[in-house]
UniProtKB/TrEMBL annotation:
Gene Ontology CC: membrane
UniProt domain AB hydrolase-1: residue ranges: 31-260
Superkingdom, taxonomy of origin: Bacteria
Protein name, per record: Pimeloyl-ACP methyl ester carboxylesterase
Originating organism: Ureibacillus acetophenoni
Molecular function per GO: catalytic activity
SUPFAM superfamilies per the UniProt record, alphabetical: alpha/beta-Hydrolases
Gene3D superfamilies in alphabetical order: alpha/beta hydrolase
Length: 298
């Protein structure tokens, strides 16, 4: 089903491929690939699409088991590897040599995996609400709910809904929390567990990243109320080459929904800096930014 009304959209799905849509802008050659988080689908970028499509071609993908995409085969043990291969297949099919990637929450874990294994396909990365190292009590709670005895005892959606309230507890988080709970009702148990294990083990990806020299320009964006992940991302960015963190005030985990205007401007400014089709603006070399805009110098 076509989620975005635009005559240039194309969408494909079968049992061997992911569902995806393209929004093409023939005046521009560069692409942005968008990844949603656990329980979502590509429609969560409804506040980004009108802005981004004016200057870029867009590729929106429903990750395995989400939206219109089917589950990965049960015998496929490595979720990130299998999904990455499917994403690369889509890029090849659409003749996209490389692209800018924008992801939210657990979608950023897949982006980091792609960055390690297929760096030549990535021009730049914008990671919103990046799920790296959890606060210790959250990590313990997550591991407990996924322990075999507990996960077989509890209704599988109960931990997801509980964590939605833990991650997004405030009144201003209500809209994004509601969207993710609503969309999660479409998840099968198999899909939920697959991606829940990816999130549980996200620290392993960041441990691997810390051993590598990052050459891909990365912008991490998070809300100052993203209490579960903000400290871990601050620590990671301080030690990662070629990356910056921008913290949005009075904002929680899903900053692309809670603060879309600020998020969109940050994303466009950053991607333009890395773009081959538009003049770039040199950024001040500061690791962590906070406020309403990234300071630029000519």
């Amino acid at each position: 089903m076509n989620k975005f009304s635009n005559e240039t959209n194309e969408f494909f799905t079968n049992k061997h491929e992911l569902y995806y849509e393209t929004i093409t802008n023939h005046a521009h050659k560069e692409w942005i690939v968008l990844f949603h988080g656990l329980g979502g689908n590509c429609s969560i970028f409804y506040k980004q699409i009108p802005t981004l499509k004016e200057q870029y071609n867009l590729l929106l993908i429903d990750l395995p088991g989400h939206g219109e995409s089917s589950n990965l085969p049960s015998e496929e043990a490595n979720t990130l590897y299998a999904t990455s291969k499917l994403v690369i297949d889509i890029l090849d099919k659409e003749n996209i040599e490389s692209a800018h990637f924008v992801g939210v929450s657990s979608g950023t874990i897949l982006m980091q995996y792609l960055a390690m294994h297929f760096p030549n396909r990535i021009q730049s990365m914008v990671l919103a609400g990046a799920s790296g190292k959890w606060r210790k009590w959250g990590e313990i709670l997550g591991k407990t709910t996924l322990a075999k005895g507990i996960r077989n005892l509890l209704p599988y959606k109960l931990p997801y809904v509980t964590f939605a309230y833990i991650l997004m507890p405030k009144v201003n988080h209500k809209k994004s929390r509601g969207i993710f709970i609503r969309e999660a009702n479409k998840l099968s148990k198999q899909s939920y567990l697959r991606w829940a294990f990816v999130i549980r083990d996200s620290y392993k990806i960041y441990n691997e990243l810390s051993k590598l020299t990052n050459e891909i320009p990365k912008l991490y964006i998070c809300g100052n109320e993203d209490h579960m992940f903000i400290d871990g991302i601050k620590s990671h960015v301080q030690n990662e080459k070629n990356s910056n963190l921008y913290i949005i005030d009075k904002c929680g985990h899903v900053c692309n929904i809670e603060k879309p205007l600020e998020f969109n401007q940050l994303t466009l400014d950053f991607i333009k800096n890395q773009s081959t089709q538009l003049p770039s603006v040199r950024e001040e070399k500061i690791k962590i930014h906070s406020g309403t805009s990234i300071k630029k110098v000519s």
